[in-house]
Amino acid sequence: MALRATDRRLIRTLQSSGADRPQNAKPLMVRSPLARLRFRRLCNAGVIVPVSDGWCYLDPDAYAEYRRTRRRRALVVLAIMLPAIGVFWWLNR
Prior knowledge:
It is a single chain. By secondary structure, the protein is mainly alpha-helical. It has one domain: Arc Repressor Mutant, subunit A (Orthogonal Bundle). It is built from 3 helices and 3 strands; from the N terminus they run H-E-H-E-E-H. The chain has helices at about 1-15, 35-45, 60-90, and strands spanning about 25, 50, 55-60. The protein has a 3-stranded antiparallel beta sheet with strand order 1-3-2. A hairpin with a 2-residue loop joins strand 2 (about 50) and strand 3. The longest helix has about 30 residues, at about 60-90. The radius of gyration is 18 Å and the shape is elongated.
């Protein structure tokens, strides 16, 4: 939960400041170790794009794709876990 909250905070900061393209880049202060870790992850995914020292912007298309990928991954995990839990329950009743 803390990871997603940190991601949302970083994304919301850039969205609320209108930093959605290179010419609108804004400074983003990343202080906590968890925020730095999540910032690097979002940069590696292309969601947050650094343009100069501390200035960056949010790539809306990359963010949409990032969210789709995370949602798809969660559904795959559920599709595997729910039947496994059902079989486990059925065998142990």
